[in-house]
Design brief:
This protein is an alpha/beta fold and about 325 residues long. It is about 35% helix and about 15% strand. It is built from twelve helices and twelve strands. The two termini are about 20 Å apart. The structure holds glyoxylic acid.
Amino acid sequence: MATGARPKVFCSWGFPEAGLAILREHADVQVWDGPDGAPRDVLLDALRNGAAGVLALPPTDRLNVEAMDLAPDLKVISGFGVGFDYVDVPEATRRGIAVCNTPGTLTETTADQAWALMLGAARHVPEGDRYVRSGEWRKYEPALLLGTDIHGATLGVVGMGAIGTAVARRARGFGMRILYAGRSRRPEAEAETGAVHVPLDDLLRQSDFVSLNCALTAETRGLIGTRELELMKPTAILVNTARGGVVKQAELAAALRAGTIASAAIDVFEVEPVAHDDALVACKNAVFAPHLGSATFATRARMSRVACENIVAALEGRRPPFLVNPAVWQE
Ligand code: GLV
């Protein structure tokens, strides 16, 4: 980057203006304004052409060795979201590239979505909607679309981080018993929600609803497969607002088909967008959303602001507010 020149920043999507406006005050900003987010070759070209910062969309954009090899001037990768499984973080750290995210911006909104899906699956909201629209509804029927009670049931939270805790907090209002599994005990979450820490297998055996809220890491990839689904109650409902890769998708589809569990409520898929002929999509006893965990006006604006503030800070030599790899930062 030439001294005095404004740094170049590439945005792989037309992210909310709330953040882009901040970015434009400090950088030459190139925003992909076509449909569907920037194709990979456009992202790679921007990196090759001297981008010092990139505002990327997790989990779609892949900021891997190939991308970093082409990026002589790259100083900061900022994700529009919390998950950073789309970046090779150790590689970025080796190269001194800051990796940033937006924790805290979407916690409550994503917990709301987990609950929307949980309620939708438990009480057949999408089927009921389709039934009313179909014109087939003739009378009030005692046995129509019977569901599962949420109040008083047992919720198992896998990954009691910020979002898991927010999901559990809502469960208190429904009078639920709350279990959680995860590497470490979370005394604050336990005190706030009354959740009890148990091994994952016990959580799966005892829960009526299992909510996945862990990050996708080497340890959690494929965490839920046939063995785990078989531990669950045949009446249980699996809710995934974390990452598709936490679940072995084909094995979930098989379990839903076989009635191993009652239903699933799925916001995230192994590959997004999921193919419309994927075996999971064919399962009638599931409710889907197209990765809408953080999709509210207010939250998406907040995410954009924080993601852009991270970039501006890094380019100005200040420590970004939310740095995933603090090892790159020496004051
Ligand atoms: C969205 O999926 C995020 O990682 O925030």
